[in-house]
Amino acid sequence: MRTEILTLCMTLITCAGNAQSETALIKQKWILVSATADVSTDLNNRGTASTDLFAQYPPCSTDDIYHFKDKGVFINDENKEICQLPKTYTGSWSIKNNDSIRINFGRQNLIMTFKMVRVSKTDMLLRTRQSLKSGAADVLYSFRRID
After folding, report:
1. Residue 77 phi/psi, 5° resolution?
2. Structural domain boundaries in the chain
3. Nearest to 32 by CA among 50, 51, 53
4. Residue 30 — φ and ψ, nearest 5°?
5. Whole-structure pTM value
6. 109 or 52, which is more confident?
7. Cβ neighbours of residue 83 under 8 Å, at least 6 residues apart?
8. pLDDT of 19
């Protein structure tokens, strides 16, 4: 009996956390403000390795807008602030295991799973393990909500 009650309580808490993250996430627009790796790498082939990946991104990639819409629809808008010929890509997203988010970016078969470190009404932190030029690295992506 205690086991069933504990399981029910854990399920309710987990589901509530999932719902809270999802509520803060959907119907919002997000912009990436930083990407930091635990290993230095030279993404742009300029001869200087750094853990600050965002500083090495091409300018057109630094103002992309990400929309998490209802029913798992994901929109990646390249934005027109910097890109002269911006594109919009449609993919999908889903929350897995109540603390991870899987995103299909809708381009180049790019599908990634992130640990949701924090999702609030103003910011979002996502962490993933990915291959970089210098090898595998933990990368923390920080997003800011925009209106």
Report:
1. -105, 120
2. 2-146
3. 53
4. -125, 145
5. 0.81
6. 52
7. 60, 63
8. 53
Tokens of 57: 């991104």
Residue 25: partners with Cβ closer than 8 Å, 6 or more residues away: 68, 101, 119, 124
Strand partners, 126: 116, 141
What DSSP designation does 116 have?
E
Report the alpha-carbon distance of residue 111 to residue 142 in Å, rounded. Answer: 18
Give the separation between CA 79 and CA 66, rounded to whole angstroms.
10
Measured distance CA(137)–CA(14) in Å, rounded: 28
Look-up: residue for tokens 């992309």?
A: 64
Nearest to 57 by CA among 38, 78, 34: 34
Place of tokens 């890109």: 83
Domain 2-146 in CATH 2.40.128.540? The answer is: yes
Q: How far apart are CA 45 and CA 32, in angstroms?
A: 22
Q: What is the pLDDT of residues 2-41, one digit of tens each?
A: 333 322 223 233 333 445 567 778 888 999 999 999 999 9
At residue 125's C-alpha, the angle toward residues 70 and 63, to 5°, is 75
In the numeric block, the tokens 């987990």 are attached to 14
- Both tokens of 27, joined, read 């119907």
**Which residue has 């602030």 as its token pair?**
81
